[in-house]
Amino acid sequence: NAGVTQTPKFQVLKTGQSMTLQCAQDMNHEYMSWYRQDPGMGLRLIHYSVGAGITDQGEVPNGYNVSRSTTEDFPLRLLSAAPSQTSVYFCASIRGETQYFGPGTRLLVL
Amino acid sequence: TQLLEQSPQFLSIQEGENLTVYCNSSSVFSSLQWYRQEPGEGPVLLVTVVTGGEVKKLKRLTFQFGDARKDSSLHITAAQPGDTGLYLCAGPTSGTYKYIFGTGTRLKVLA
Q1: Measured between CB atoms, does A97 come within 8 Å of chain B?
Q2: Do B101 and A92 touch (CB under 8 A)?
């Protein structure tokens, strides 16, 4: 099992560009989440999904879109990147009360 | 809005010392979790506490859930350089899978 994988590991964007952060898990978990981590602020929930076709907003959803067409994949889309979206992004899948995190994507928006 | 506040924010100690990290809230949580995160990696779950007053031990780490389920603590005995990392507490909001995280405690153990 690869667990939770995220691509890319690092990305530089210009303001206004769009991109998709990929997240995949091979553990057949129904629940998946996206977080961003900023210095001094812990992890903040962006969006989450309780199964294929079902998504909901977290604490900081503005500027981000998600979809969940399969159990395995949960991509995060930035439609028009802003410098405030510079952060480290983590995807997680959940089984029971255990969250399994990916290695993260470090995003820099210039 | 449920919040989790951690203290201290930073901690630098010598190998062999003991330390305690706190996670506090004004809200009741059905459970609280502790994670450790190392640079360049995602957080890894250490423990989940569920019952008020519960104490769990993981080798030299002792976790306690407050009687009122509003706070938790992590105590490390005889800290080692391998304990260095960012410690995060987290809890589910209102019985959902929407977790909130504390701001973290960055621990550095010097050899």
Answers
A1: yes
A2: no
